[in-house]
Amino acid sequence: MSGSSAAGFAIRIQKSLSTERFFFCILILAAVLRFAFLDLKLFHHDEAIHAWFSYKLLTTGVYVYDPSFHGPLLYYVTAGMFALLGDADLVGRIVPAFLGTLIVALVYPLYRLGYLDSRQTLVAAFFLAISPNMVYFSRFLRNDIFILFLTFVLLLALILYLERGQARYAMITAAAAGLGLSCKENMPIVLGIFGVYLLYLLWAGKVKLPARWKRDLALGVLVAAGIIVVFYSSFGVHPDRVLTFIPDAIGHWWEMHEQQRLGGPFYFYVLLLLLYELPILVLAIAGTVQFLIAGRKAASAAVRSMHEIVAISLQQIRSVLPAPPSFDKKEEFFRFCIVWMALSIAAYAYIGEKVPWLLIHQLLPLVFVAAYAMTEKKTVIAVVSSVFLVLALWHVAYVPADVNEPIMQVQNSEDMREVMALIDGSNAVAIASDRYWPLPWYYRGDRSANLSYFGKKIDEGSIAAGNYDLVIASDEDSYPALPGYEKRTYNLNYWFSWYDNKDRVLQYYFLRDGKMGNMKIDVFVPERTSA
């Protein structure tokens, strides 16, 4: 092969391995991980409730904000999907999976804007693509993936507004804020962190607001407020909720914070990071240390430079004085991500309600900090250590069984598939218990005709008079026996509790044999008569 041919071949190889092509492959991987076997598992307890409210909104047109179930955006979006594609588990999870994929895609604009280099971009996107928590909660009908996507959109729009000064970016920022506030009550944490850092940038003279910023701010407030009013008033059906949703939300979630209904230690999320996201956590710690060391070296160099300048005669100052240092957007972005990460971890450590899905709000900035100073050696470490993430991801997202993991909180048991098969074969079913979710979701519309929900244990005479093919009761308030029925016990749902496992955390980390809490139901089926 001639020298020119070899050079041409090398150039073609280099082009084929461009950042864009690598990024596209990572994006495809992210999409596959989020959309593959999307209805593999039954709906989680919360998913079933969210889907049910969305179905009721679609079929009856009724929605009223209740802070226990977060903001209205998810319900309107999901109802729209049900209207387009039908009401099903898979359809309910399509938008979360799509938004989870877009979160990976939004890393690319940061690269094009110069805030990440090629290596940082690919590593950050790869971590977001295969992170067990990012994937799991992108396959999950909850508000958090909506909030995370809107957080990223808000960040990019705000950056573009500060760089280009165009009003349209201010409006996108406002729309993202308004939609986020219409989605879940933790959006103010994001706005608070971003707002504080913006004030710092302005105070330090690192950025300047556009000339027409007051006009853009006023228009942005109108856009955000308009979105909030439309959603919380249920598109004008309940205008009174516009005045009450804020005190209701604060009152409810402050009570949950003090009650610590789903509590845990202040380091609860650190344990989850160690359990599922260890490579990202370690690299984020390393990135923070690297950033601080680099900042100290830069400060020392600046002091030495100042001493040298002072030592030179006044006549020579003009000729040797260095030009003011330019604004390093990459370094400032990582400084922001470290602050964002630290304040997010602190905020969620303080909040009394400790639930696994809140981890992803801390994980997004953590991923960017992990990508700081991504040398070739550090890149190799990131890629090799990703095996840990892949194994954890496979276990929690793609195993169709009751998995003993804290990431799954009050997950409906796979036992319920057998229970629902029994219901499908029955003409009349009595549910003599207040434990029955997710049945209202799976038996909605015409399918609910054969089910009678009593909400409590009923007397045996009522069961006999009802001529039921199937009777379901809580195992804690059940019947010792029912004449003519065979008793079977099934898991309804299950969870991993910190309080049940706090004395054996290290053992669980390696053995995954923690104590699971669960609810059980007794199912009474007709006795088989011998021929």
UniProtKB/TrEMBL annotation:
Keyword flag Transmembrane helix: yes
Source organism superkingdom: Archaea
Keywords (A to Z) from UniProt: Membrane, Transmembrane, Transmembrane helix
Annotated Glycosyltransferase RgtA/B/C/D-like domain residues: 70-223
Pfam family, one: PMT_2
Stretches that traverse the bilayer: 21-38, 73-90, 97-115, 121-138, 145-162, 187-205, 217-235, 266-294, 333-351, 357-373, 380-401
Keyword Nuclease carried by entry: no
NCBIfam families (UniProt xref): flippase activity-associated protein Agl23
Protein name: Glycosyltransferase RgtA/B/C/D-like domain-containing protein
Organism: Methanofollis liminatans DSM 4140
